[in-house]
Structure formats: structure tokens, C-alpha cells
Amino acid sequence: MRDLRDSSGITPPPPVVTPVAKTSGGVRGILGRSITLMKPVTWFAPAWAFLCGAVASGQLGLSLGVVGRLILGILMAGPILTGLSQVVNDYCDREVDAINEPHRLIPSGNITLRHVYILTIILTWIGCGVAIYLGREVALYVGLGLICALSYSMKPLRGKRNGWVGNTLVAISYEGLAWLAGHAAFSQITGQSLAIAMLYSLGAHGIMTVNDFKSIAGDTRMGIRSIPVQYGKVMAARLVVITMGVAQMGVIGLLVWWGHPIAAGVVGLLLVAQSIPNVRFIRDPEHNEVFFNATAIMLFVWGMLAAAIGLAG
After folding, report:
1. Would you say 302 and 45 are in contact if contact means Cβ atoms under 8 Å apart?
2. 190-313 adopts what CATH topology?
3. Ranges of the chain with pLDDT below 70
4. What is the pLDDT of residues 118-142, one digit of tens each?
5. What are the residue ranges spanned by the domains of the chain?
6. CATH class of residue range 27-189
7. Per-residue model confidence as pLDDT tens digits over 95-104
8. Exposed, middle or buried, 39 (CB in 10 Å: 0-12/13-18/19+)?
9. What pLDDT score was predicted for residue 134?
């Protein structure tokens, strides 16, 4: 989810004039380039968090109306709003990308700025329209999520310049707010659901750091203070593991306190299973990033669903 980014400490390059799109036109070509710009690989986390929030509400069923509402919310959280945030992010990065990654869609001219503007308007209208349809509280969480997304990418805040700020903005919007929107779409938010959503947002902060290991050299050159740049590879990897672990232990403790021992036990087993990938990641984070994503983070994600089922019980 991370790209090479600019810094206030570096003189910005001259404005880049995007050339006319080089690829073939037609509806299929436009649609394909639009989806690529929206980065489908990033859609899963918010969509899953929305699903978990909906499960936590305890109001899911197999009726056509409920299933349709759930599918609509997942599409809103994943492809529509997360896709929108990725489009905005690439637009804000276009001048830096023209220097560091000129092959990307916008600086290469494969997508024009006019295309970006139109796609942004369409996704914004659809996303906000679906949110309003799902309820005023859902619309509130969507609005907060959009503020986080804009604060992450756009000046003057441009939170992505600092790992602590940027990761927090992404973690809250991708996990916490998406979870709360899923719950609010079906019932009133409870204090228990809010607490679990915030704990998983804390864990997601660590997950966001994993994405920064592959761009340490570029971030250092551009003055981006990501967690690995600030603390080095080994300490950053330890912070990832500690943050994810503390969040899950908090979830386990609350589930036990609230009388959901089975759900707490499942989350606990999933946490224990993360031990091996955690050790491997700390020893060599750069070469074990893919393994860590496929194991520890996937176990973390399944724990979210287990906790949600516990709250629904």
C-alpha cells in the first residue's frame, strides 16, 4: 500500500504535465486502467473489517435483504472507498513518481489527469451514496475514513511522511472505522464492539509497518520517516510483532472478561500459532515479509472474525 513519497525537507520537482494516454481506448481499456489504479490488492482489509463488524452486530441472517445489505457494504468498504483512497494517493504522489517510478500509470501517461478527476468524482458519489443508504451512522464513519485518507496523502498534513502518523491514519480507517461501519449498518454500536475495533486498529498499525520494509532505501533517500527508517530493520520488526501481539492479548482479555471464553481461546490459539513467523520475521524482516503476510497476518485476520463471532454470541 506504500509508495515512494515526498518530504517537506526536499525541494519539490517541477510540476509534471501528464501526456496524452498512450494505451488503447474503449470501455474495456478505460475500465482496466481504472481498476489497476484502484489497486485491488488493498481492498481486502477494509472489506474484511466491515464483515467482522457486521458479524459482531449479531444481526446477520440469510434473508435476501440482509445479505444484499452486507454485500453492498463490503463493496463500499473495499473496491469503492479503498479504491478511491488509492486513486487520491497516486494523484498526490504523481510528481515524485515521475522521478522514482515513471512507469506508473499517471506519470507514464497511461492515465490522464482528466481520467483521475472523473474516476475520483464517480467513486466519491457512489461511496457516499451507499453510505447514506446504509444509514447516517455509517455515513459518519465513512466521512471520518475519507478525512483520514485525505490527511494521509494530501498536503499540508500528508501523514505518510511519518510512520507513526501515517500508519495510524491507515489503521484506523482500514480496520476500526470499517468495523464500526459494518456494525452500524445492522445495529447500534456497542461499547464492546468499539473496544475490539480499536484494539484491532492498534494491531493494524503494526501490519502497516510491514509494507515499509521493501522501500527503506527509497524512503531514506526521500526523507520519509517510516518506522524501519527511524529504528532500523530489527527494531521495526520487533515493534510490528509487539504491536500485533499486545492488540490480540487485549482482545483475549476483554473477551474473557465479557464471558466469551471460547472466542478468547480461539484468538489465543491463533496468537500462539504466530510465534514461528514472528521469530523468522524478526531475524530477517526483508526476506520473510511475504511469509509473514501469508502466516502471521492471516492468523491475525482470522482472529478478528473469531472475536466478532464471540461478540455476536
Report:
1. no
2. Four Helix Bundle (Hemerythrin (Met), subunit A) (1.20.120)
3. 1-25, 100
4. 999 999 999 999 999 999 999 999 9
5. 27-189, 190-313
6. mainly alpha
7. 877 876 788 8
8. middle
9. 97
